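Hi there,

I know you've been waiting on this one. I reran it after we fixed the sequence typo, so this is the corrected version. Both the input and the resulting structure follow.
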Amino acid sequence: MNRIAMRVSAWMATAALALSQTGCGYNDFQRLDEQTTSAWSEVLNQYQRRADLVPNIVATVKGEANFEQETLTQVIEARAKATSFQITPEVLTNPQALQQFQAMQGQLSSALSRLMVVSEQYPNLKANQGFADLRVQLEGTENRITVARNRYIAAVKDYNVLARSFPSNLTAMVFGYAPKANFTVANEAAISAPPKVDFGK
């Protein structure tokens, strides 16, 4: 009888724990954690898509005689820095690491924008259909990056509200759900307005 009572007590404790976890947002943490991870993966996919375009853009521009070398070098160096950054799970909970990641991607955005502006000074390059196609692809990718980042911002906001609200903040403390880093306020204007890279034909 004692064993039966112990089993019933253990079962009730387990049920109570499950109910308390559900009531305190445990399942919501699972869902929102997956949502932010998925949104972050899409951000990285779009940044990689842009990085993959750069070698073709550089190769096409190099074919233009006397093209401004400094601008080309800035693009190459910015891409090298952006792709060398080690993406680890800690980036999502480390504001400094995320800020560093943003800065490197921002440098690449600026370098590519300058490259597109400078390319307008070269009639042969402007008339190059291959370069025109790459420019359209770049513009589309910048737009996708903006959409992906905005989705990540929204996903992190939902997660962080749960992590900081009572009583779900108690669940966050017990299970180690720390607030996630988000794009900084200083970058929100840039996030909502992607670099203009299509400057006409």
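Quick highlight: The two ends are 87 Å apart (CA to CA).

Best,
R. S.
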